[in-house]
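User: quick one
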Amino acid sequence: MCSRTRSRTRPGRPRSAEADTAILEATRAALVELGWSRLTMGDVATRAGVAKTTLYRRWNNKNELVVDAVAVLFDELRLPDLGSLQADIEDVVLQFAALLERPETKTALMAVVAESTRDEPLRERIRTSIVDRQKRLVLEGRQRAQERGELPEERDPATVEAVDDLIFDVVAGAVVHRALVSAEPVDQAWVQRLTALMLGGLTAAAEL
Amino acid sequence: MCSRTRSRTRPGRPRSAEADTAILEATRAALVELGWSRLTMGDVATRAGVAKTTLYRRWNNKNELVVDAVAVLFDELRLPDLGSLQADIEDVVLQFAALLERPETKTALMAVVAESTRDEPLRERIRTSIVDRQKRLVLEGRQRAQERGELPEERDPATVEAVDDLIFDVVAGAVVHRALVSAEPVDQAWVQRLTALMLGGLTAAAEL
Amino acid sequence: MCSRTRSRTRPGRPRSAEADTAILEATRAALVELGWSRLTMGDVATRAGVAKTTLYRRWNNKNELVVDAVAVLFDELRLPDLGSLQADIEDVVLQFAALLERPETKTALMAVVAESTRDEPLRERIRTSIVDRQKRLVLEGRQRAQERGELPEERDPATVEAVDDLIFDVVAGAVVHRALVSAEPVDQAWVQRLTALMLGGLTAAAEL
Amino acid sequence: MCSRTRSRTRPGRPRSAEADTAILEATRAALVELGWSRLTMGDVATRAGVAKTTLYRRWNNKNELVVDAVAVLFDELRLPDLGSLQADIEDVVLQFAALLERPETKTALMAVVAESTRDEPLRERIRTSIVDRQKRLVLEGRQRAQERGELPEERDPATVEAVDDLIFDVVAGAVVHRALVSAEPVDQAWVQRLTALMLGGLTAAAEL
DNA sequence: TACTAAACGAGACGGTACGTCCCGTCTTCGG
DNA sequence: CCGAAGACGGGACGTACCGTCTCGTTTAGTA
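Assistant: Done. Structure below.
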């Protein structure tokens, strides 16, 4: 009945919380300096002042470690309230672009996604640690826009979710593609065009 | 007669053309079976019935080899003429999605893009071998739509190019993101929504 | 009354005697199954149902543990009284050979001796736990033979000790070398030859 | 018919002979400094200016490497001709004792013998590389002694071999046991006693 | 009966070496 | 000069144990 039942305190020496944070910080530092492919577990361990075994006790491989190390950066994204949906979106897209410019994300993100095509647990970890967590931005933005009357209310919840997902893929995908594949700057002008295209599409679709 | 002749037929044994195609095929086969990260140069050489030296004589490293092996697949994309822009786009997007579903592209594409963030020559090779070659689809589609009157004529060439680039990043980015990051199916329904969003946005923008 | 009492019964929980015997038994079992080099402290601890800490509280390292685990086996050697020195020696040599055939001694003995060449405390432990304890057999045998008149009395105690030591090294060394280095069977015929050689040499020497 | 049939010249780059000798020398140096148990493959490779893989390409493990490194030292043993069998034996036993005192053999020999109890290929390697090669000393000694008339001729070849083997085990075993187990000096006095014991035994046995 | 102090199990820790895999280069021979 | 074969120096991998440590939990004798 009381909560003491489940795994009160595990026997043995508890894991060091300091080690966790030191490792994640070291991983980000190594990503900045070396990039994904030159990052090694041994180097991360040395930077963190930790034994290699301590890394492997917590993460099965380099990919999962890097996902966790990078995931936290995405939580910094904030949807501002600048008065209009267009402005809010432009701001958060620029935040996202700035994040993708950081060397620790730029190289790591694509690499783990590439690996995830062959690694189901990794894909799941990416989804829960990064993707799903950032969908909140789309959800928030749409809800606020509807309250403001900038977007029409859509009743069918399945349609709502489908549109949210579409927006997420379009915005995130376009920014990533622009930044990493096309290797062109994600500047204010481009962001304005992207946002206009998308909002135009949304309202046009709603009027049908 | 002049000294240029030596470049016409160099002395010694000429390079085997068969080796080239065997290597690229072997690379694709290895990608299918092993994925990017487990693919090794030695394995490709063995599959191709070729010595490792022969690989390195033609490509500097694994990344460039894989780009060349995969690039040719993208040339299969064709913009059909189904009568309406909407239908044409939906068709080519589905072709692109099918291409991304193939294991040899799925795993390789993101990986080389990831590497390219730290490797300028590789980025250049990706751009010329893959990216720029596929922009033709956007160009073709827009021109044909304008001829049909489905899209308004835009006079300023800089704007034209900017919009073409935007469309390319949006469509390619969205599909890639949907397929590889969100790991959701790129099915007819989703493609219709994407196309509608985009065309809606384009016409809305043009009316301003 | 005086402060020496604290050494009689130390405060705190006393060490478990069961643990001691369980550990030594587990060590022998592990030697049988795995041999010296694959035996690990963690494995012994698990077999004994004991924590690794408990091992290290009692023995400084693997070598000392193994010496203690094996030493007790040597105490089983008994010099029988079969009526003649030749017969007595043959019997005890065969006992010794049988002991060396057991997998827990075969693999462990040479290994700890090898380690002892670089580890003075270990050498001392081997000497006191094994070597010196078995010299009793030579001493007993010689004394009994002299009482029986099978060997002449030697007066000089230094010579006596030197000869005892020589016999010990010759017999033990020959058996070990035959069994482990030459890897030939220590059978009745060989033991007879060895014993005859030695007794012949001893009487020949005494006649000089 | 011609000798070219068997493996004339294998394809590919041939193995470096310099690497072989450098590795064996480095192994002996490491044995001197570190002893058997602290010797590591990586360290040997570094000393030899060679990659670890080069070691593993030639030897399966540390044990086999050490056997080969040490074996050559035993070939230095020479049976001198000092006029009498007793003197010859004493001399070669002292050579053997001196060899066993060298740090590279002292620690390594027992260790590989210990390992060989669980490793049949290793035992075979020890036998062919070391043991059988040194039996020549016994053979030579006996033959010369018979020519000189110091030992009676024995006709039965099986008996001859059995006695040769016995002598080998007795002498080698006694010296090793004295030096490494008893850890007492193998000095002139002790060697004289050992030789006398053995020769006495041999002649006594022959007279029966 | 409670206190105290050591022993206990469990298991995380920093560290070292392992033996393997692959890299990209080189050295040989034969075509 | 090309190509196969394969050895080379190098570097990272992920694993296995080492011997130590830090927990919370017994288990005595003592107060």
